């Protein structure tokens, strides 16, 4: 059967990707004549997600949540008090909130307004604590009709071919019925052009509902897209790019302001392989608001290895390659970057070292992120609702939330408890540079050292643990703010 042959080829392709990802990571980490260079590509002058004042936003938070994938009403486990505790424990200001097509459009052309109202209620919980919310149209393995989540049963055509759950779960993507379902959605097979049309219509309904919501920063158009029988550059530059452009155009008919985030083909980009996504067009008036939201799951970590020994070496090499590939793709897209997912089994004894490593790399790249995920359990900062896991104290960190200019660099040295943020003035940007200082490291707030001209205005909020600094502007001057714990 054709489908079985495709599944076998895809399994081989996935295995080859594991080998290639490790090889690419090794090559990326090698300089001239085999010398080892640093973990990142060096200074990176990228676009930034900005707020209404023009300040660069460095979003930091969690995914909420995996529990929404299979709950009957599509809602995550989180409660309003849980949102407050998330802020009080971690100091986050961002959430990647999972929604699903099957919930938005339970039958063709019928859109569930009650579901959207329930989502809006939870967005309001986050808004009350000062969070920005990214709505993520989530799918894994297409939809429940083929042993996944995301797409409604009415928009699933498996061609009557088998779907047997695999271990690890990602291999279920290669099952003949799953491949067939994706081929129908992408138009590789011509039987159901209405599937993609209805997906875009569902996004239009979501965007219309949240167009005026100031807590929602944007929309993640599809979680971890998978190409079915078309893979790699042929998928990303062909069906995926066409789908993204179609969805962007549809959303812009009802919402011209929110950011729209696109993801690469996950199975390769997650493991640090290059992406072939082409530049997309934003039909809105003014500067484009299209962002790039890759995920990071280095193959050794993704396969369950601990961050130690050879596994740590290969993981570091993979991360080095990932930073290079992300930078190249973002430059091609002319898009700011937001890391949509990363994480690991936090019960592993070396998990804290991996968290420190990734946070350091993200600081070097000056990008925000959402850790996977908020669901209590081994991959979470909670052992159970209301009870922080040991990794929570590692995830809690000092970081700049909003930078009133063009960011140059920032870092948090955990051993010395020193947060350093540098930026240059940018025309039209107003307001303060705001930094979050975790109470565990800064119980009395922070004292500042500013390399600049004039005296800054500062404000410390002991309830939110946010230090705001307003600096006199001077063209061409690099402002360097150093914050250490106050006595």
From TrEMBL:
Database matches in Gene3D superfamilies: Glycosidases (3.20.20.80), Golgi alpha-mannosidase II (2.60.40.1180)
Residue stretches making up the Glycoside hydrolase family 5 C-terminal domain: 398-483
Xref: Pfam families: Cellulase, Glyco_hydro_5_C
Annotated keywords: Glycosidase, Hydrolase, Membrane, Transmembrane, Transmembrane helix
InterPro entries per the UniProt record, alphabetical: GH, GH5_C, Glyco_hydro_5, Glyco_hydro_b, Glycosphingolipid_Hydrolases
Transmembrane regions listed in the UniProt entry: 12-31
Domain Glycoside hydrolase family: 51-375
Protein family according to the UniProt entry: Belongs to the glycosyl hydrolase 5 (cellulase A) family.
UniProt-recorded name of the protein: Cellulase family glycosylhydrolase
Species this chain originates from: Streptacidiphilus alkalitolerans
